[in-house]
Every structure is written in C-alpha cells, then in structure tokens.
Design brief:
heterodimer, A: 251 residues, alpha/beta, Rossmann fold, 2 domains, 6-stranded mixed sheet, 4-stranded antiparallel sheet, globular, B: 343 residues, mainly alpha, ABC transporter involved in vitamin B12 uptake, BtuC, two-stranded antiparallel ribbon, two-stranded antiparallel sheet, 4 strands
Chain lengths: 251, 343
C-alpha cells in the first residue's frame, strides 16, 4: 500500500500473529500508519481488532511478526513502555478518575510538586490547572471550570480530557477504542472535529469503530480485518460503505 | 459549544456540593445550640462557654478521631478497616506491659520506659496493618472480610496478652502523656491536632493523597496511570493501624491501664465520624475537615446527653440516627446532582 511514494511510516506493523490457546486471533496481519493520518480499523466482532491494538499498545505480546516504530524495531513489554514511546491508548471507559479535576487527571501518576515555605512539598495545583486549560484549548474545548471533578462534564468533554492527557504527554500515536460510542450525536460531531484537529497537529491515529458513517467521516484509510486476517485495505476516498461491508463479512 | 452544560446549573451544583461538604459542621452547630439552650434553661449556665465542657469534649474526641483519621484514608480508597478497635486494644495492652517490664525487669527510668512503651504499641499495630494490606492488595480479599478477620485475630491476641484483665501501669511520665496539660491544653489534644494536620496535608497536598482519591474512584484508571495500587493500599492500611496504635498507647496513659477492649466501642464511631463527615463508603470522596466535624458531632452527642442527664444508652440511638440522616442527605444530594448532569 506504499503506492503514494511516502516516506517510511511512523508505525509499521509486520505480519503479526497471536493466538490464545487454540484460537488464532491474528494471523500475519500487517498495517502501516503515518504521522498526520487517521486509520480506521474495521471488522466484525472477533475479527481481531482489539487484539491488534492491544499488541501495539503493549498489553499483549505478539507470537510472531514485528513492530517497527519510528524506524526502530520495538517490543513493548507493558502499556507503560508503549506510552513512554509516545503510543497512547484511549480506552472506551476513558480511564478517568471521576472525582478529580481535568488537571489532576492529565497528571495522574505524574503530579507536579512544588515547595511551599521553601521546604514542604505540595501539589502544584496552579500548574495542573494551567495545563488543563491550555490542553483543552488546544483541542478547541473551552472549559471554564478547571477545578471541577470530571464527573460533572459531558461524555464528549470527558473524551476530550482523556485525549488531552495523551497529547499533553506528547503522544505521537493515539489508539482510540470506539471513541464515538456512547455519545450523543452533537458530541460525536465534536469528537470527529477533535480527531481532525489532532490529525492537523500531526498525530497518527488508529481508531476502532463499528459505525461506517463515523469511519467515512473522519478516516484517511480503512483497514478491514476478518477472522484474524487482513481482509483488505482501502483509501477512504476510493471506496464506499458497501465495499467495506463486503470486506468485513467476506461476501 | 451547544453541548456544554449551562453555567447557571453548574454554579448551583457547586454551591449545593459546598453546602453538603459543610453538612457535618452545620450539624455540629445545631447540636451545640441545642445543648446551649438546654443548659441555659435548665441550669442557668452556659454549655459551650464552660472551659471544663470544652476540654472534656476535646479529650473525649481524641481516640475516635485518631481512629477516624486512618479510617478516612482507607474509606476514600474504597476500603474499610474493621480491625482498628482491637488493634487499638492490642497496642494499649502491649504498651502497658512494655512500660511495666522495662521499669521492673530492665530497671529503666519512667521516661525511657514511656517512650519504649509507646514505640512498642505502635510497632505492634503495624502487624495487623500489614496483614490487612497484604490480604486486600495481594490476595484480593474484600476489605470488609480481610479486616473482619483481623478484627478477630487482634481481639483474641489483645485478650490473650492481657490475660483477660486490664494491665495497670505505674509510670507517672506515661500517665502525664495521657492526662498532662500544656497551659490549658491537654497534651493528647495537642498530639491529636498534630496528627490531624499531618493527615490533612497528606490527603490534600501530596501525590499520595491524590492517588488515594484516584484509587477510590477508579482503580483501573489509577493502575493505567502507573500508580502501584497494591503498595499504596498496603500503606493505607498501615497508616490506619498506626493511628489505632497511637490511640491505644494514649489510652493506656490516660486511664493508667491497658485494656483489650479499649477501642471496642470506637470502631463504629470511627466509621460513623467518616460517614457523617461526608465521605462515601463507595470510595473516592471524603476529607479530614469533614471527619473532624463527624468526630466532634459524635463526641458532643455523647457528652451532651450525659450533661443534660439523659440515660446514657440514648447516645447510641442518637448517633445511629445521625448516621442515617447524614447518609440520606448525601444520597439525595447525589441524586440531585445526577439529575442536573443529565439535563
């Protein structure tokens, strides 16, 4: 699929295989991802979409194949290792601590500390609030209440917080699992705009979706999996929903 | 921007939340006003302006408050510690024995014996704390069950070590720790105030506190953020046990004897103080500020009812009713907040 003569991809997944006991979840699947590109991962239930992103994110180890990231052959032992390399996964349940503010969620586990009275280490809430404001502004989400717990925000805003956390830490690859699920229509539009915004900022994005209209409204390329193998790969501008469905079900 | 909730609803919600945070303090004020009126009418004297009353209430509140501070940390992390009462008793008995032994057998002076006794009581309390944390964090035992088990173990151990009786001490330095005053301020009140400040700092100003709230609200989120929840959980139960151990060693100084049942009635008081103080038993919320008010509410009820000459057993009824009311208020407040969030 390197027909457009582009430079080497940011992420190059080469014939990945993975089985769980007797079940072959993935069999020799390859895909590439460039900076500033949105790739939709489509496929029926059990096609291997989740397994593939979990391998990229360091949750699972592949049985075979290799991942070349930024020109380097990598093996991520843990999700932390992947995150340290700038590959961030935004899960469906968003993994936010609802009782904490946006800033506290962005910094969760890496909270900034300053010295009060010159000796007493205290949380730097000012820095957290500033980062929250700046990050949300970068995503075109205005928030006036940076100190409110995120439980007070809507689904789309919470999605933005989860994405904001990833981009604050300079993620280069964002993996999004059903980012539009469980959102109302206006919120879905906001998230689609958000993904386009991230693409414009040069982020590489893989997202899983069941919804063809979401896929067609935001992706540059569509990778279709079926029963653990690559069923096809199309430029979004050169295909249509019918063809993608045929690839998904194997018609 | 159409999807953002309106600022008006938002500010109203915050005001509501703020009132709810102060609930326990409002309750405390109502109680004090009630006893004040009663005292004025019946005894023609003041309840609250009587220094003796204030001192008694604050001394009275120290032990339940110390237990409640540890309990606050544990409850915020969505756990519970049922073993604090007898951990306190165990520490009280051990401290009494160590004070006696180090004077009689080792021939130490009163002050070193006192220091050794208090240190021993606190060190012993680390054992149930560590076991609780380990059971919950590594063997995935539910906190209610794990600490209930340690409730039994510490209870048995305390009575066995006390040989079924109280263990009197004869150490005036130790007695001073429990009963002495600096000016008009009882030493144990001062000490408790220091622990209160330290706990408040830990919870509201440090990464440790932040992680405690995160674990309580969404453990998976905390784990994904790289927080070692197992280590953190063990530390929380250790802190809870240390608070109980300190309360136990102070008990021995205050009552001139260690007793296995020292903390028996205080377990429920400690949980009640946290709940009245506004924490949710589901975890993720609670403050030291609220817990102080909760502990004071209980202390004022207990002391006040004796003060106005009501049969002491009414205390239990009153505290029970206050717990139920405060949980009901909390629930209705949450429901209100929830409705507005959807709207």
């Amino acid at each position: 699929m390197a027909e457009t003569g582009r430079a080497r991809p940011l992420l190059d997944v080469r014939s990945i295989s993975k089985s769980f006991a007797a079940v072959q979840a993935l069999n020799g699947v390859s895909m590439q991802l460039e900076a500033g590109e949105v790739v939709a991962l489509a496929g029926d239930n059990g096609a291997g979409k989740s397994t593939l992103i979990k391998i990229i994110a360091g949750v699972y180890r592949a049985d075979g194949g290799e991942i070349v990231y930024n020109g380097e052959n990598v093996t991520f032992e843990t999700p932390h290792a992947a995150r340290d390399h700038g590959i961030e996964t935004i899960y469906q349940d968003l993994a936010l601590a609802d009782n904490l503010s946006i800033g506290a969620n962005i910094f969760l586990g890496r909270e900034p500390v300053r010295l009060a009275f010159g000796f007493l280490p205290v949380l730097d809430r000012g820095k957290m609030a500033e980062a929250a404001k700046a990050t949300m502004a970068r995503l075109d989400f205005e928030v006036d209440r940076v100190n409110a717990p995120v439980s007070r925000f809507s689904g789309g805003q919470r999605q933005a917080v989860a994405i904001g956390r990833a981009i604050y830490w300079e993620a280069r690859v964002l993996i999004m699992d059903e980012p539009m699920a469980a959102l109302g229509v206006p919120e879905q539009r906001r998230v689609i705009a958000l993904i386009k915004n991230l693409r414009a900022q040069g982020k590489a994005i893989i997202f899983i979706s069941h919804n063809l209209s979401d896929i067609f409204s935001v992706s540059d390329r569509i990778v279709v999996l079926r029963r653990g193998v690559l069923a096809g790969e199309r430029r979004t501008s050169e295909t249509d929903p019918d063809e993608i469905v045929r690839l998904m079900v194997g018609g | 921007m159409s999807t953002l909730s309106t600022p008006v609803a938002a500010s109203r919600r915050t005001t509501l939340a703020r009132i709810s945070d102060l609930r326990a303090w409002l309750f405390l004020i109502l109680l004090v006003v009630f006893f004040e009126i009663w005292a004025e009418v019946t005894y023609h004297s003041s309840f609250v302006l009587n220094p003796y009353n204030l001192q008694s209430i604050s001394v009275f509140a120290t032990a339940p408050l110390l237990l409640a501070l540890g309990q606050t940390l544990v409850i915020i992390s969505s756990g519970i510690d049922l073993s604090v009462g007898f951990t306190m008793g165990l520490a009280a008995v051990i401290a009494a024995h160590v004070s006696n032994l180090s004077m009689d057998a080792l021939g130490l002076g009163e002050i070193p014996a006192m220091v050794l006794a208090i240190a021993a009581g606190i060190v012993v309390s680390l054992v149930p704390g560590l076991v609780n944390g380990w059971l919950i964090a590594h063997l995935r035992v539910p906190p209610f069950i794990g600490t209930l088990g340690m409730y039994g173990v510490t209870r048995g151990a305390a009575y066995l070590i006390a040989v079924g009786a109280t263990v009197p001490i004869h150490n005036s330095a130790y007695t001073w720790v429990g009963n002495g005053k600096i000016g008009e301020l009882p030493f144990i009140v001062l000490l408790t105030a220091i622990v209160v400040l330290a706990t408040h700092y830990l919870l509201s100003q440090t990464r440790f506190g932040q992680h405690t709230y995160a674990i309580g609200a969404n453990r998976d989120a905390a784990i994904r953020a790289g927080i070692d929840w197992r280590r953190h959980t063990i530390k929380l139960y250790l802190l809870s046990a240390i608070c109980a151990g300190l309360a136990g060693t102070l008990y021995t100084g205050r009552f001139l004897a260690g007793a296995a049942q020292a903390g028996e009635p205080l377990l429920l008081d400690s949980i009640a103080a946290v709940v009245i103080g506004g924490a949710s038993l589901f975890g993720g919320s609670g403050t030291v500020f609220g817990t102080i008010a909760g502990a004071l509410v209980i202390a004022v009820i207990q002391y006040g009812l004796v003060f106005i000459d009501v049969e002491p057993f009414w205390q239990f009824v009153a505290v029970g009713v206050v717990i139920i009311i405060s949980v009901l208020v909390d629930q209705s407040q949450r429901r209100l907040a929830g409705e507005r969030q959807d709207g």
